[in-house]
Amino acid sequence: MRNPFEYGGVVSGEAFCNREKQTSDLVRAMENGEKLFVFSERRYGKTSLVRAALGKLPRKGYVCAYVDLWPTDSEATFVTTVAKAITESMSTSVGKVLETAKKFFGSLSPSVTMDEEGKPALTFGLGKHARVGPALDEVLVTPARIAAKGGPRVVVVFDEFQQILEYGNDHVERKLRSVIQNHRHVSYLFLGSRKHLIQKMVLDRNRPLYRAGGHYPLGPIAEKHWQPFVRQRFADADKGIDQEHIHEVCELTQGHPFYTQHVCHVLWELCEPKAGCEHRNAPGGGEGAVGPGKLCLHDVVGVSGPFPEAVLEGVGGGGLRSEGVCR
Ligand SMILES: Nc1ncnc2c1ncn2[C@@H]1O[C@H](COP(=O)(O)OP(=O)(O)OP(=O)(O)O)[C@@H](O)[C@H]1O
Ligand SMILES: [Mg+2]
User: Fold this and answer.
1) Predicted pLDDT at 79
2) Could you tell me if 175 and 269 lie in one domain?
């Protein structure tokens, strides 16, 4: 049986724990054409959450462009990445991609080539001497064009938004300001993982995006949501874990989604079917406790690291010095 606790990538479906309120908040924001900055530290689940919210919107009547800015490093790569995301969100079939690309972004020389796996891939190119400014205007005005005159509702998500601070100038930030102000029928969500940067971008009066939208900090997942989630997944594999042990895991990770999944992944792996996970308090942090069938959470911290400061403090300061043993 596959380990039900996933850490690292985007999680969905059975691997996705709660976030019900946050999902419905984001769905409402999208329906209302709101502009929202969603931020947290790394690995708190922003991408998984926004993907879950996008999945709740009716397919009919909505065009949702998800733009991952992580690979972008300049205005030009921003332009081509946004153009690609919008085109793909508008195309129902591979055959239609090039047609759509030409219709909306003809000036960006769209072409479809085969990637290494033989799959068709859409690419855009900004000619060497092409001016980026007009191309930027063109891609950023497109969502509003699509939504105009009773068109579909449009949602644009910019993930890893802090990346625009690496572009060397603030053209994108400035341009987005007017887009946000004027595109009443388009919802924009900006996801960022460097909290202080995003806050600075939105809450600093001197920045173009000052109070350009609402801000939505994403916190950890509460223990009351982890309890049934973790217990059920152990039970499904005929493994047992009781409330107190899940509580200790949550204390250790402070509900941080990535770390909670990681610790549970390790515990689940070490726990034999028809057995239960048991924790024993071990003075001295359980040194030497790792062996076949045994797991010291302190060591999981080492394996998973780097843990957030607060978590490490909890472990080092004697907050949690326990040894988890699978019997
Ligand atoms: N709702 C959730 N339920 C269970 N696990 C979650 C949830 N959200 C996030 N996780 C855990 O956190 C990990 C990271 O999630 P995700 O990539 O969505 O976070 P992120 O904030 O977008 O991260 P990054 O800062 O790297 O962009 C997932 O692989 C999963 O282990
Ligand atoms: Mg992410």
Assistant:
1) 95
2) no
- Residue 217: cis peptide before it, omega within 30 degrees of 0: no
| Full DSSP string of 43-75 | TSSHHHHHHHHHHHS-STTEEEEEEE-TT--SH
Residues 35 and 167 grouped into a single domain: yes
What integer pLDDT is reported at residue 117 of this predicted model? 85
Which has more pLDDT, 277 or 73?
73
Q: How far is the CA of 11 from the centre of ligand 2 (A)?
A: 11
Mutate to test the pocket of ligand 1, among 66, 194, 258, 304 (most ligand atoms within 8 A of CB): 258
Domain of residue 254, residue span: 223-301
Distance (Å) from CA 266 to ligand 1 centroid: 17
How far is ligand 2, taken at its centre, from the CA of residue 159, in Å?
A: 7
Query: Is 121 in a helix, a strand, or coil?
Result: strand
Quickly list DSSP for 248-301. HHHHHHTT-HHHHHHHHHHHHHHSPTT-EEEEEE-GGGGTT--BTTEEEHHHHH
pTM: 0.86
Number of domains in the chain: 2
> Which-ligand-closest: CA of 255?
1
